[in-house]
């Protein structure tokens, strides 16, 4: 029998190894399946007006750090407002979060499809950046600034620092985005009218018109033109101005002393969101430092509404004056005013 002992030992060892392999495979297969189920269940759907690349950057960063898939449904501001006004049933049980402009969120609040949200981060955000009943919260904004070529500033006898001065300055080349080409550009147009009144706002724009070298199609074009010395001053969003500054273009940002329009982006939780817990965590993330780190590493610089974030400290002491909030214009009034500008100024 002794001569069979080694053989028996070998057979037993093989059996034990096979059992160990089988147990390991079962355990890890179960763990992988469990993780796959978790991954399938951990997702949120966000209806948004963000640019596609910005949405992709946010989705990738949040998924990487939180193991949650973010499915963005991207629409224009007009498309999302139309959906909210005329087809809210299509959002029920489909959308978890809105991440969009203030205009969109205000329309959603009126339709009673949002759910109030509160957190420590939300508590430090100024009232002007959030709904008074807590239905939506502004998370960042992008102000309109004057972006000046440095050579122009060194030689100019006078530097315009208000909207009226910009219109009155002689021998000035201006670049700006066409009001009919972009939501942000048209919103600036409406904001000027609400701030100064129709008569005075049109007077400012009428004086500016002969100085405008180009009404551009894109928000970035006026900044590039100022950086290339094709215009002296551009009317532009700050985020684009900072992006070009970081690429060593010879530019200086001037904040209008009489105030300026700002594009506020905010977020809201839908009342019938199918993934409320994950949606709440995503909204909290949007108000913190992490989303600002995500934006800045991708070359995007917005002003956070949460003044406790590290990113906000960049803008402290910049003397950034914002237009006061006014009653929104009706869509019919917006159409009338824009049509008037096109006919009496733009095409003259």
TrEMBL record:
Example of a GO MF term: thiamine pyrophosphate binding
InterPro entries: SBP
Sequence intervals crossing the membrane: 7-27
GO terms, biological process: thiamine transport
UniProt keyword terms in alphabetical order: Membrane, Signal, Transmembrane, Transmembrane helix
Keyword Transmembrane tagged: yes
Keyword Ribosomal protein: no
One Pfam family named in its UniProt record: SBP_bac_8
Protein name: Iron(III) transport system substrate-binding protein
Organism the protein comes from: Pectinatus brassicae
């Amino acid at each position: 029998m002794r001569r069979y002992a080694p053989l028996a030992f070998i057979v037993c060892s093989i059996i034990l190894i096979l059992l160990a392999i089988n147990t390991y495979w079962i355990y890890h297969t179960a763990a992988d399946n469990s993780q796959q189920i978790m991954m399938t269940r951990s997702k949120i759907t966000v209806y948004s007006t963000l640019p596609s690349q910005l949405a992709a950057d946010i989705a990738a960063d949040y998924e990487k750090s939180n193991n949650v898939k973010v499915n963005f449904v991207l629409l224009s501001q007009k498309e999302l407002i139309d959906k909210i006004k005329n087809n809210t049933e299509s959002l029920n049980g489909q959308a978890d979060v809105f991440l969009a402009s203030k205009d969109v969120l205000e329309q959603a609040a009126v339709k009673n499809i949002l759910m109030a949200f509160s957190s420590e981060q939300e508590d430090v955000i100024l009232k002007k950046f959030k709904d008074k009943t807590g239905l939506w919260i502004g998370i960042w904004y992008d102000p309109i600034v004057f972006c000046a070529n440095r050579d122009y500033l060194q030689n100019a006898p006078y530097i315009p620092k208000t909207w009226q001065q910009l219109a009155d300055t002689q021998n000035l080349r201006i670049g700006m985005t066409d009001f009919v080409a972009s939501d942000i550009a048209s919103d600036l147009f409406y904001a000027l009218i609400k701030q100064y009144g129709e008569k005075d706002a049109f007077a400012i724009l009428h004086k500016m018109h002969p100085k405008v070298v180009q009404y551009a199609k894109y928000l970035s074009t006026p900044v590039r033109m100022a950086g290339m010395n094709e215009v002296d001053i551009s009317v532009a969003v700050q985020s684009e101005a900072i992006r070009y500054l970081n690429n060593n273009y010879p530019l200086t940002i001037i904040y209008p002393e009489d105030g300026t329009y700002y594009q506020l982006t905010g977020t809201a939780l839908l009342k019938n969101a199918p993934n409320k817990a994950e949606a709440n965590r995503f909204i909290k993330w949007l108000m913190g430092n992490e989303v600002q780190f995500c934006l800045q590493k991708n070359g995007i610089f917005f002003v956070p509404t949460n003044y406790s974030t590290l990113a906000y400290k960049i803008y402290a002491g910049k003397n950034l004056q914002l237009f006061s909030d006014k009653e929104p214009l009706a869509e019919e009034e917006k159409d009338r005013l824009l049509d008037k500008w096109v006919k009496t100024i733009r095409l003259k």
